[in-house]
Amino acid sequence: MFRSGLSWKERTGFAIWGLGVVVVLRTLYDVFGVAGRELAIVAVVLFFGSFYGVFMPVWRRVSAE
To answer: Which helix (H) or strand (E) holds 52?
Structure first.
């Protein structure tokens, strides 16, 4: 098994974030019928919009070490 340098809390946070992104996109696709270009735009906005909240705190900690 490889060592990524992340704690179990950080890995759990990334897993929950990834699962949340998938759930939101599947809900938009299945329930609301968002597809094609609109779904791609929402996916990009969702990914980069949540990037700051999830990845930046970890990036700051890793780069400070």
So the answer is: helix 37-64
